[in-house]
Amino acid sequence: MKLLLGTTMIAGLLIAGAAQAADMPLKAPPRAAPYYSDWTGFYVFGFGGYSWGRISPDDFSIEEVFGTGFHNPKPKGGVFGFGGGYLWQYGAWVGGVEVDYGFSNEKDTQTFTIAAEDFTERLHSKIDALGSARARAGYLFTPNLLAYGTAGVAWGRSELNIVGFDAKPTLFGWVAGGGLEWKVPGFDHVRIRGEYLHYDFGSTGYAFQPIITINAKTRDDVARGALIWSFN
Questions:
Q1: CATH of domain 49-230
Q2: How far is the C-alpha of 187 from the C-alpha of 70, rounded, in Å?
Q3: Of 69, 85, 147, 207, which one is least surrounded by beta carbons within 10 A?
Q4: What share of the chain is helix, strand, coil (3-state, %, to 5)?
């Protein structure tokens, strides 16, 4: 009788425990850490786009000197080039360094002709080279899409020709901008990019030898796309 009573009590306790366990809420499985594709490593790229610049004398405007119909030079045209860099990835954050060199076809030609006197005034300007060394920092909004900002030092070459007198200074200044970069699914080494860059070369001396040197501020804006090959 005692054995039967003990067995019954143990069975009852086991059934009650099982019922209580069944009523308890189940814990959700731990959330998986987000996955980000690997962006760390070296890369090279080629780019092409469009650029528009401004050359503004410090002490006067071109219209004041040449008269109505002329303006401060605004060269514009295509730009293409190449570059390379390195990226480091920390979770969803990406940083790195990059250098590039571009060939520009920005030009602006202004003319004014007095037919009766057989006289033509001509002002020609161009920016034919742009380069930079920049830092980059960005965030991966998806494993394959990077939004970034960039800034650094810049150099370039411009030219002003006024009625036959030429000045060709080398430019130095800063550059800043940003863009989006996308890793092509199924092609882990291929990325494409769209970006905007603003170049500011400050005041530069345009030396029209042997007559005069004019100080002028030179700025340039570039919208470009790039095809990238990464080695990671």
A1: 2.40.160
A2: 51
A3: 69
A4: 15, 65, 20
Task: Count Cβ atoms within 10 A of the Cβ of residue 174 and give its class: 0-12 exposed, 13-18 middle, 19 or more buried.
Answer: middle
Domain boundaries, the chain: 49-230
pLDDT of amino acid 6: 44
Nearest to 66 by CA among 114, 112, 5: 112
Regions of the chain short of the pLDDT cut 50? 1-14, 18, 21-22
Task: In whole angstroms, give the CA distance from residue 80 to residue 104.
Answer: 7
State the pLDDT at residue 7.
43
The DSSP 8-state label assigned to residue 115 in this structure reads: G
- Which tens digit of pLDDT belongs to each residue from 148-160? 999 999 999 999 8
